[in-house]
UniProtKB/TrEMBL annotation:
Gene: ndhI
GO cellular component, one term: chloroplast thylakoid membrane
Record's subcellular location: Plastid, Chloroplast thylakoid membrane
Binding site for [4Fe-4S] cluster 1: C64, C67, C70, C114
Cofactor binding description: Binds 2 [4Fe-4S] clusters per subunit.
Cofactors named for this entry: [4Fe-4S] cluster
Pfam families listed in its UniProt record: Fer4_10 (PF13237)
Family, as annotated: Belongs to the complex I 23 kDa subunit family.
Lineage, uppermost ranks: Eukaryota, Viridiplantae, Streptophyta, Embryophyta, Tracheophyta
Catalytic reactions on record: a plastoquinone + NADPH + (n+1) H(+)(in) = a plastoquinol + NADP(+) + n H(+)(out); a plastoquinone + NADH + (n+1) H(+)(in) = a plastoquinol + NAD(+) + n H(+)(out)
Protein name as it appears in the record: NAD(P)H-quinone oxidoreductase subunit I, chloroplastic
Length: 180
């Protein structure tokens, strides 16, 4: 016979192999029905950010000494630091500090190398806007705490516990119980 004809499998062998492949696919499909969904519906549900998540940068104006280390370590020279030298106190005085988050790559070098720790990374990641010029944050916008921190239960609990400790110190003999 021809060599091509001998290379083909018989009809019965092909049917058995096809049935086995379809059965394996069907079992795989059925095994996925017991799994929980992995996706989240983003605007309505927010994912929990990891502990060292690099989100929007938080800036504390009072701590900054205008040393410009953040500008030197930034791979794209992004932070804009405006300062003037005060002769009477012999120090730099910070006038303006701004970061354009449309250009920022969120590497975290500025936060890591800041000698006064006036920069920190927050967990805020929703920075989208329709105008790219709104992504240029000045020191006032950078100093705002994110909404997630303001509404955080643990921070409220810590604040309440410190207030209660202050109250206990004032009246150490009183036995008032407050329910938070």
């Amino acid at each position: 016979m021809f060599p091509m004809v001998t290379g083909f499998m018989s009809y019965g062998q092909q049917t058995i192999r096809a049935t086995r492949y379809i059965g394996q696919s069907f079992i795989t499909t059925l095994s996925h029905t017991n799994r929980l969904p992995i996706t989240i519906h983003y605007p309505y549900e927010k994912s929990i950010t990891p502990e060292r998540f690099r989100g929007r940068i938080h800036f504390e104006f009072d701590k900054c000494i205008a040393c410009e280390v953040c500008v030197r370590v930034c791979p794209i020279d992004l932070p804009l630091v405006d300062w003037r030298f005060e002769k009477d106190i012999k120090r730099k005085q910070l006038l303006n500090y701004s970061i354009d988050f449309g250009v920022c790559i969120f590497c975290g070098n500025c936060v890591e190398y800041c000698p006064t720790s006036c920069l920190s990374m927050t967990e805020e990641y929703e920075l989208s806007t329709y105008d790219r010029h709104e992504l240029n944050y000045n020191q006032i916008a950078l100093s705002r705490l994110p909404i997630s921190i303001m509404g955080d239960y643990t921070i409220q609990t810590i604040r309440n516990s410190t207030e209660s400790k202050i109250d206990e110190d004032k009246s150490s003999n009183s036995r008032t119980i407050t329910d938070y």
